[in-house]
Design brief:
The protein is an alpha/beta fold and 475 residues long. It folds into four domains: 233 residues, P-loop containing nucleotide triphosphate hydrolases (Rossmann fold), CATH 3.40.50; 91 residues; 77 residues, no CATH class; 35 residues, no CATH class. Helix content is 42%, strand content 19%. The strands form three sheets. The chain has a six-stranded mixed sheet with strand order 6-7-8-4-9-10, with helices on both faces. Helix 7 links the parallel strand 7 and strand 8. It is globular and about 100 Å long.
Length: 475
């Protein structure tokens, strides 16, 4: 066993996120962490990484365990290049490189320091760390980041930073890696490279993800639900079957409790009525005892919170009619995005793209692919009507984010060049944007103030009541 976890309690803003999370991780084990957004998965990683010490419980790693993890934000990258960012965060490489480059300057004739240097140099050779930069450069190609070795991290998009972070994990040679949503910004080729690594790597991997392809590679799944951990052996397909069975049983138990509560309410009123009608002292006392007993049980059952019920669509279709009806009644609701439905019945065009060619730099340079200019794509046409959903699918660097930038026409971003074609956006619509990363100005703000600023920057009203409602939706 490489890791043992027992978290009894972790709260945030008087809300208990975790109340009973217990699990262990073995050497080389691949583990998927799943759960609804805001349920505490990233909080769990913060605890495992030692960043969050404000909890009750214990986290025990095997002695000398080497731990690697992805980052949640990249405000501290400074002037580091992509290669520097990766190398500085490779645990053993960074340690050995520091010794063999710095110790010769100070060790002199000190025998112990000379031995330390010799051992470090020998270990460096054993690990083939002389070739690690070549391996990383090759990996960058697999993730559509060819030639990015000398680029500054701060110049990269949020998605590109996440890809670089993932490459760092792949080359970390750690005992256990904690990876948060690795495939969010990967194209199909990069995703295949990640899945191949995950399947063949010797280290234990804990991964927070909603990606079913990733979850098919794991040995077990830990679901965080209602502040507790539920462990399912096997991959995601095994989890779905086990979850459907256990959820059906829990729904039956919950329905039984609800029926008992309804019955007790009737009995309580009946005992009270009989007590008030009775004239015999003994009869009055008997109905009083029955009423008190019923009220006590009613109070206990009423304190039981409704469990979280979730079954995937495929397994819901396999439930019998009664179970499916119960699930429809009790299933957990996801966070919904508020949309303007005033044009719900309209089929008008919201966005129209006609014969669009998009790229960066002068057209003549882009055609010859020189001076850093390039054509991203050409002859692109589509329409987006009210109520429709469009997915942009393509390799990293193909121009998906650049197309979004061109549609939004934001003045504070480096807009791509339109070489031909047209982009028409209905002037009467409001566009909401989910960006790859937030700006660093929000990092030091209390969450409440950050949300308030976002609203005020958009000239939107935000009250204390509305703020609490928003926080309650997500946390």
């Amino acid at each position: 066993m490489i890791l043992s976890v027992q978290i009894d309690e972790k709260s945030f803003n008087n809300k208990r996120l975790i109340s009973d999370v217990k699990f262990s991780i073995n050497e080389g084990e691949k583990v998927g962490i799943i759960g609804r957004n805001g349920i505490g998965k990233s909080t769990l990683f913060g605890i495992l990484l030692g960043r969050d010490k404000d909890f009750s419980g214990e986290v025990i790693y095997r002695k000398n365990t080497v731990l690697a993890s992805t980052q949640q934000e990249y405000s501290n990258v400074g002037e580091k290049t992509v290669m520097e960012f990766i190398l500085n965060d490779l645990p053993e490489y960074a340690k050995l490189y520091k010794i063999i480059t710095e110790l010769p300057l100070t060790m002199g004739d000190d025998i112990k320091l000379i031995e330390k240097y010799s051992e470090a140099l020998e270990r460096f050779h054993q690990k083939n760390f002389h070739f690690v930069e070549d391996k990383i450069a090759e990996e960058l190609k697999n993730f559509s980041l060819e030639g990015f070795e000398t680029k500054k991290m701060k110049q990269l998009s949020g998605g590109q930073k996440r890809l670089v972070d993932t490459i760092k994990i792949i080359h970390s040679e750690s005992d256990i890696a904690l990876v948060d949503e690795p495939t969010n910004f990967m194209d199909f080729a990069a995703k295949k490279s990640f899945l191949d690594w995950m399947q063949n790597s010797e280290e234990a991997v804990m991964v927070i993800t909603h990606d079913r392809d990733v979850l098919k590679q794991v040995d077990k799944i830990i679901e965080i639900r209602d502040g507790q951990s539920f462990i399912f052996k096997g991959n995601y397909d095994d989890y779905l079957r086990q979850n459907a069975f256990s959820t059906t049983n829990k729904m039956q138990d919950f329905e039984s409790i609800q029926r008992r509560i309804a019955n007790l309410k009737v009995k309580t009123r009946e005992y009270q009525r009989m007590k008030e009608k009775a004239r015999d002292p003994g009869t009055i006392q008997r109905f009083k005892r029955l009423e008190n007993t019923a009220r006590k049980e009613l109070a206990e059952l009423s304190e039981i919170d409704k469990p979280t019920f979730w079954i995937d669509k495929q397994n819901v279709s396999e439930l019998d009619f009664k179970a499916a009806k119960s699930y429809s009644k009790f299933k957990s609701k996801n966070v919904k995005i508020a949309m303007d439905n005033s044009y719900e019945k309209s089929r008008r065009d919201l966005v129209v793209i006609e014969d669009l060619a998009l790229g960066y730099g002068k057209l003549e340079d882009a055609i010859e692919n020189k001076n850093g200019a390039k054509v991203l794509f050409e002859d692109l046409s589509f329409k987006l009507k009210v109520g429709e959903i469009i997915e942009f699918h393509g390799r990293n660097g193909a121009g998906k984010s650049s197309l979004i930038k061109a549609i939004l026409k934001k003045n504070n971003t480096a807009l791509p060049d339109i070489y031909s074609g047209n982009i028409h956006v209905d002037e009467t619509i409001k566009i909401g944007e989910y960006t790859q990363e937030i700006t660093s100005e929000y990092f030091e703000m209390p969450l409440k103030n950050a949300i308030e600023k976002i609203y005020l920057d958009q000239n939107l009203e935000i009250s204390e009541t509305k703020l609490r409602k928003i926080l309650n939706q997500y946390l």
